[in-house]
Amino acid sequence: MKKSVLGLLLLLVVFACKENKKENAKTALSVEKKEKAAIKLYTFDGGTVQVNQLRLFSQDSSYAGLSKDFADAFYVIQHPKGNLMWDAGLPEGLVGMPEPFTSADGAFTVSRKDSLVNQLKAIGMTVDDFDYIALSHTHFDHSGHANALKNATWLVPETEYDFITSEEMKKDNADLYNAIIDLTKIKKLKGDYDVFGDGTVVLKYAPGHTPGHQVLFLDLVNHGPMLLSGDLDHFSENREFRRIPIFNYDVKQTNASMDMFEAFAKEKDAKVYLQHSREDFNKMPKTPKFLN
Question: pTM of the full predicted structure?
Answer without folding.
Answer: 0.89
